[in-house]
Structures are given as C-alpha cells and as structure tokens.
Amino acid sequence: MGISIFQPHAVGFTNPEVMRASAALPAANAWDADPEVVACAGAWWMRFFITYEREGDSGSMDYYYQISPFATDALAPNEVWFNGSLYAAGDLTPCDWAHSNVQQEYITYCASSGNAETFISPPIHLAGCIERVRIFCRQTPGVGAPGTAEVIGYFYVAG
After folding, report:
1. Which of 96, 123, 130, 154 is 20 to 30 Å from 51 at the Cα level?
2. What is the CA radius of gyration of the chain?
3. Pairing between β-strand 107-110 and β-strand 17-24 as defined by DSSP bridges
4. How far apart are CA 141 and CA 44, in angstroms?
5. Could you tell me which CATH class the domain 17-88+98-156 is placed in?
6. 52 within 8 A of 147, measured Cβ to Cβ
7. What average pLDDT values come out for the chain (159 residues) when binned by 10 residues?
8. Gap between the Cα atoms of 141 and 69, Å rounded
9. E strands of the chain, at which residues?
10. How far lies 95's CA from each of 91, 92, 99, in Å?
11. pLDDT for residue 9
12. How far is CA 94 from CA 10, 16, 88, in A?
C-alpha cells in the first residue's frame, strides 16, 4: 500500500509548525523572552527540527520546552505551563521501595562547524492530552556573538 500522492506528508502527521522563526538568539545568555505558542490538541507525539548556525569560532545553543494541558491561560487555576523533565528509574530491591528521580531538563547542542547545522530533538510524548507547547532557546557559551536558530515542530496525531 503506497502513500496517496494527494497527501503532503505521511498519514497521521500534521503540517509542520514554525515554533521559532529563524532569528538571532538572545544575547547575554538569556532565554527567548516571548516564544511562539502552538496548539497541539490531540497530538500523541512531537519532535523539534532545529537549524542552528553559530556566529563566532565556537558556540552552542540550549533549548527547553514547556507544555500546557489548558487551551488558554484563563482555564488554569494556578500553573499554566509545565517544563519538560528527565526521569531516571531507581534500582529495584525486592519488597522495598524504589527511589527514582525526576528533574527539569534543558538540552545543549554543540555546533561542529561555522555552517548552519540541523538536528532533531528526541521524541516528546504528549499522550493526546496536551493543548499547547512552546520552546525556549538561548546561545551558550559565546554569548557575545549569538548565533541564529529556527525551530519547526512536527506532531503525530494518530493514536
């Protein structure tokens, strides 16, 4: 069974969403101040497709994402946005509690050349219950000469 020639992309995937238009990263090690908010209701998985070009002789970029189970800020009683996290399962001992760890996470991409480089984030599980997502980016360590970054989001909606 082939993919219909009328499908612009694989079945189950949405059209790509611009999460961060190509632009210089903020200076002085600052995160993006006002990131784009993208609706993702019903999506099960997503990935960021990122293009980064350093400005100086060295450089890297950091990013982290936030998700919201609320369609608008007005629906949230307190917290609206939740940071992505990293989970590490603890060792199992029979008949005893296991101590696992979870903490907030940001990811660093180190450029290997002065040319624009592309990379893909690990898959992010949205479980069909997240309404919105946004991504924050910053230049590190060459904060005096920030590079440029663009982020495109792809969402998988088929359960």
Report:
1. 130
2. 18
3. unpaired
4. 34
5. mainly beta
6. yes
7. 50 82 91 95 94 88 95 78 88 87 92 94 91 95 85 86
8. 33
9. 17-24, 38-39, 45-53, 60-68, 82-83, 85-88, 101-104, 107-110, 117-120, 124-125, 132-140, 148-156
10. 12, 9, 13
11. 57
12. 45, 47, 19
Output the six-digit token pair for 27.
Answer: 């200076």
Tell the residue number behind the tokens 């350093």, with chain if given.
54
Q: Read off the amino acid at residue 9.
A: H
The two structure tokens encoding residue 43: 């999506």
Cα(18)–Cα(93) distance, integer angstroms: 46
> What CA–CA distances, in Å, run from 28 to 25, 52, 140, 146?
10, 17, 9, 9
What is the DSSP-derived secondary structure letter of residue 33? Answer: S
C-alpha dihedral (62, 44, 49, 112), degrees to nearest 10: 50
Q: Which residues pair with 17 in a beta bridge?
A: 153
Q: Which pair of structure tokens corresponds to residue 3?
A: 């993919």
The token pair at 122 is 């690990």
